[in-house]
Amino acid sequence: MNSRASQNSIIAAVHFLQRRDGHNFKFANPLYSLDASTIDLCLSAFPWADFRTTKGAVKLHVGLNHAGYLPEFVTITEGKKHDVKVGRMLNFPKGSIVAIDKAYNDYSWYKQLTDKGIFFVTRLKKNAKFRVVYRRSVLKEKGLTCDQTIEFTGLQTAKRCPIQVRRIGYRDPITGKHYVFLSNNFKLSAKTIADIYKSRWQVELFFKWINQNLKIKSFVGTSKNAVMTQIWIAMCIYLLIAFIKFQSKLQKSMQQILRLLQVNLFEKRDLMALLRGDPVNKGLPNIYQIALL
Q: What are the sequence ranges of the domains in the chain?
């Protein structure tokens, strides 16, 4: 299967499905969550997927668009490929907001995103050296502990990211855990920035869903092409189910739709009637059809 053709098909399908709704925030900026999932492979059966001494793997990198929670950016690499190297390759639209974890920490990339007019929300490393330029008041009852404008002071960091960025402290009221976020967006409220990072969990839920429902942990073939093809097929199936859910306008979940299709795979029935649960209409026999004994 041609990976470039698969990517183009996925992008076209995603753009169509995104018309149905947006993300749950009030701002109009496109919102993405970027992450990667490692798919473990047995090195003896998949010798081309060298990852560690006795372990093979490939990585599925996904840029999830929160407008419909659809995978707009998808690529598959060898297991050793660093996440941030793939992140640099993605062409997010100007004005979009990208939520990323600390695996994508790259100060020069933060500068590049800012120059392109793209906003990021991530976690600040504990050993980062910086100075506070400006402090804003925060609503402590919302869990906020600080909202600062900072400049990096580390010798190399200051060269790679010579811009002012925003440092936001937030304590989760449920777990009590304290987080420190980093962003180049100065317009949104501090609580919204914290909520954007929290919404990054949607891409984790996406990986969990496809692992549980689309069987990309076990493979029919052992060649690189076979593995890549099976993963791309899984991505296409996900979008087809999302499209069916969108077209049906029913309250059924994607998992319910998938189960219905699996159970009735060899039944000749109208798809929408099946999803609605309409009774089977066997109808009258066709007297003009030749009956074979």
A: 1-100+200-293, 104-191
